[in-house]
Specification:
Length: 310
């Protein structure tokens, strides 16, 4: 059974676009164990990525094809691991419906019918979208099973933080992320320059799709609105002096580095409900730790698989 309390943990998106990028002949391009990737798969992934990341329309076809290959390979790797760990894997219908709602709400749509019409216009098959969402949800369930016992939360410390930071106005940030790794610390500056150049040239959404190893990469790195009480000191210090559309230098996090982009900032006059804020902060910390475990687990699996380009 999928754990609803972790609904906030990971969100996935699926996309589409009206461009014939691959030959009409459907060819097998990659083979990963029992999974194949065809030219049609890449074409569909191309559409899928652009539909929910409209900024990609300003990118070159070649760049989006590369991103599409990366994205579909990640999905196939996850599917292989899911099939190894679950018999007849399924997720509850009501849970899937909530995930779909989260996705179409993020792109400004108000109903499932609007979302289906939007996908149809962009030549995306809704059933394929549901299947992709099921794979991602089952992957999240696998991560919960494997690592939830390792998640450590100090609720007293979090509550003290809320009380200490409590004030009449709460600042919130609309954030996007790029999570990345490097094999040698000496390469950090070079990597940051490379990522920065892509951000400045093609936008943060594209850079997230190209470089980020986080599960938010297919969303252009979008994290949504996060209030400052949910941020640890290192991240809060890194963004406190930034303006809208600025991005941070690499922030050290477990498993690698993080670049955050400020899409918007708002201040809300509130009376803080300590217990409610504590619950949000606990969920945020759990999700953060589980995301780190997810990246580590995925990289381990990928290294042990033979990916053949045909």
């Amino acid at each position: 059974m999928i754990k609803n309390k972790f609904l906030i943990f990971f969100t996935v998106v699926f996309f589409s676009y009206n461009t014939n990028i691959i030959s009409l002949e459907n060819k097998i391009l990659f083979k990963i164990e029992n999974q194949i990737i065809t030219s049609l798969d890449i074409d569909n992934e191309f559409k899928y990525l652009v539909a929910l990341n409209q900024n990609l329309k300003n990118s070159s076809k070649e760049d989006i094809i590369k991103l599409s290959k990366r994205s579909i390979i990640q999905e196939k790797i996850k599917r292989i691991e899911i099939e190894k760990n679950f018999k007849n894997p399924k997720i509850p219908q009501e849970f899937l419906e909530q995930i779909i709602k989260n996705i179409y709400s993020r792109i400004g749509l108000n109903s499932l019918d609007e979302f289906k019409d939007y996908l149809k216009i962009n030549k995306v098959n809704f059933k394929d979208v549901k299947k992709k969402l099921e794979i991602e949800a089952l992957w999240n369930e696998l991560i919960l099973i494997q690592f939830s016992s390792k998640v450590k939360i100090n609720e007293k410390k979090l509550k003290d933080k809320i009380l200490r930071d409590n004030n009449k106005y709460l600042k919130s940030y609309l954030l996007s992320e790029i999570s990345f790794e490097i094999s040698n610390l000496k390469d950090l500056d070079k990597k940051f320059i490379e990522i920065s150049d892509v951000i400045k040239d093609k936008g943060f959404d594209f850079a997230a799709l190209k470089f980020s190893i986080s599960q938010t990469s297919n969303l252009g790195g979008k994290l949504g609105w996060i209030n400052e009480n949910s941020l640890n000191k290192n991240i809060k210090d890194a963004i406190k002096n930034l303006k809208i559309d600025d991005f941070t230098k690499p922030i050290v996090v477990p498993g690698g580095f993080l670049i955050l982009h400020i899409n918007d900032i708002k201040k809300t006059k509130i009376e803080v409900n300590v217990e409610s804020e504590l619950k949000k902060l606990v969920n945020f910390e759990k999700n953060n730790q589980l995301n780190q475990y997810s990246k580590i687990y995925f990289n381990k699996i990928k290294k042990n698989l033979e990916i053949n380009e045909l």
